[in-house]
Amino acid sequence: MQLESKIEAVLFFRNESTSIKKLSEILKVSKEEIGEALISLKQKYVDRGIVLIQKEDEVMLGTASEFGDLIEELQKEELNKDLSKASLETLSIILYKNGASRADIDYIRGVNSSFTLRALSVRGLVEKVSDENDSRRFIYKPTFELLSFLGVHSIEELPEYFETFNNLNKIKENIEEPAKEKDSNEI
Amino acid sequence: MQLESKIEAVLFFRNESTSIKKLSEILKVSKEEIGEALISLKQKYVDRGIVLIQKEDEVMLGTASEFGDLIEELQKEELNKDLSKASLETLSIILYKNGASRADIDYIRGVNSSFTLRALSVRGLVEKVSDENDSRRFIYKPTFELLSFLGVHSIEELPEYFETFNNLNKIKENIEEPAKEKDSNEI
Amino acid sequence: MENEILDGKFKVKTPVFEGPFGLLLRLIEERKLFINDVSLASVTEDYISYVNSIEDMPRDEIASFISIASTLILIKSKSLLPGLTLLEEEEKDIKNLEDRLKLYKLYSELAIYVKNNFGKNIIFPALESKKSVLVFLPDERITKENMMLLAQELINKIPKKVFLPKVEVKKVVSIEEMIDRLTERIHKSLNMNFKEFAGVGITKEEKVTVIVSFLAMLELVRVGVVHVIQENNFEDIIINKREEITEEVISVIEE
Predict the structure, then answer these.
(1) What 8-state DSSP symbol labels residue B65?
(2) pTM
(3) Per-residue pLDDT tens for C140-150?
(4) Read out DSSP for B2-17?
(5) Which residue of C has its CA nearest to B151?
């Protein structure tokens, strides 16, 4: 009980995405306990004005998506809601693959995606991180900003998210992976 | 039900003390209705990490006082943390451009700078002011304290100021062009 | 769902800027076909004439169109000439093209969800707190010299204006070269000199005509309009009634 409230206080105060690891250090409990407390915290937020959004092992608080219009009116800074066709394609690959290298994206789109990726990074919709399996490679991942703009609490809430895995496996059975050469044009 | 959640979302988002009058304007309901909703909202916050604080006609969300020690620790940690390379980079742009919008900084760095700007603001190194030319835009400027810490009376005294200033301003033109071309053609 | 993305944007014969897969997918879907070697072969000519008509496209974009065009021509040649043996790499390119196209189709359909939801019901983080204690906490690394070095480092790191995709540029640089290469390639394996039949291409347009005529000729062979005798894979092809064929082929091309 207490733990949930502590997490809530920490997230509210920090006002930024916080990893489960960080929470477990601050609150001096195991990551498993944090994980359980987060589940019940999420349930408390059903039908409320505040929501908990989660991306892999990071969480943050935000306003409920159903009040998006209301809050948008209070927002002073201008929001850019335009996405080019190239951006939409690139985002859908990064979202539904939950992270993709530039080589992956170029391979699927058949065109060079450097500029699109840079533009999306600048807007904070994707971020470039080192590949866990190969530190010389980079992976572009969805950000909290992207999930927030889509109004989903986690990536799994995207329409057709799980179905896509099945469809992909069907295609993938005989697919050649793109050449794993180093991204020389990487920005 | 709905009204409570809306109030909650508005207070969470604004993150500052808000009058009942202001809430009634934003939500387009009477002050009495706001008052009633606040009473039931307060009950929801019993034993939680976030509390509703009311002082006369003003309300705001805050962290529960029983977690005061915890929050104090977080506050110390935030201030004592070393500035990241990203923060220092951002600071150099703000100095050499003599004030820059977040969009300008993002363009030059190729990534989103929200968090680094926050770290700089918290430490009193930069301040956010409204753009004189466009009230919907904000400009980050170096603080007086920062300039005197650097031992300069004005920005122009920074080493190689004019050359660097011009080069930084050129960057934006260079990057923007091809990105725009792509967007407009592909939509 | 699909129509939404198709509607307005991918209209037939509109010179819309789009990637090679967008174009291919559009050509296949216009014909209401599934993605496979047969449908890819059937859209090859349209694809090539589209690519040939593109002007004002950045070099790297053109390269990606041409790289796909050369794979398409191989698919087409293979479908018309079962005797044509392909290199391992060519076989791989063909197989990959189908799969890549299926993947592209999948993600471009999912992109509709992104488009429809983006910015509709936004979840907002809280604004920065204004009441935070005002302190001044500098860092010993904030010096005039460091600030200057960082700013200059950023200036030097900025990517150059034009990106050339290394891999694809290495493969093919222009449509002329691609066609020269393929002409040579198919010619060698069939031992047939179709230059005599379709003329020698010098300008880009002529070269495109050569390959398109060649493909058209093969098409005629397949449907039995023209009689071609090829005793063995690597022997000469004898085309009957050469004069008449040329006329027929030309009329096919003109249609």
Answers:
(1) G
(2) 0.80
(3) 899 999 999 99
(4) HHHHHHHHHHHHH-S-
(5) C144
Q: Measured between beta carbons, which residues in chain B are less than 8 angstroms from residue A61?
A: 12
Judged by CB atoms closer than 8 Å, whether chains meet at B16 and C127 is answered as: yes
- C194-197 contacts: CB < 8 A, separation 24 or more? C197/C239, C197/C242, C197/C245, C197/C246, C197/C249
∠ Cα B184 B187 C3 (to 5°): 165
pLDDT confidence band for B126 (50 / 70 / 90): very high
Q: Which residue has the tokens 């044509």?
A: C84
Q: B97 to chain C, minimum CA–CA distance in Å?
A: 10
Is the model's pLDDT at B36 over the cut of 50?
yes
Picking from A18, A73, A85, A98 by the largest number of C CB atoms within 10 A of its own CB, the best residue to mutate is A85
Strands (E), A57-142: 58-63, 126-130, 138-142
Q: What is the pLDDT of residues A130-180, one digit of tens each?
A: 988 888 889 999 999 999 999 999 999 999 999 987 777 777 655 545 544
Give, in degrees to the nearest 5, the angle at Cα C28 between C26 and C30: 65
B9 touches chain A (CB under 8 A): yes
Q: How far apart are CA C26 and CA C12, in angstroms?
A: 8
User: Number of Cβ pairs closer than 8 Å across A and B?
Assistant: 129
Q: Mean pLDDT in each 10-residue stretch from start to end of chain A (187 residues)? A: 91 94 96 96 93 95 96 88 94 94 92 91 93 88 96 95 82 55 43
The complex's ipTM? 0.88
Q: What six digits make up the tokens of A162?
A: 């799980």
> C88: Cβ–Cβ under 8 A, 6 or more apart, which residues?
none
**CA atoms of C171 and C69, how far apart (whole Å):** 12
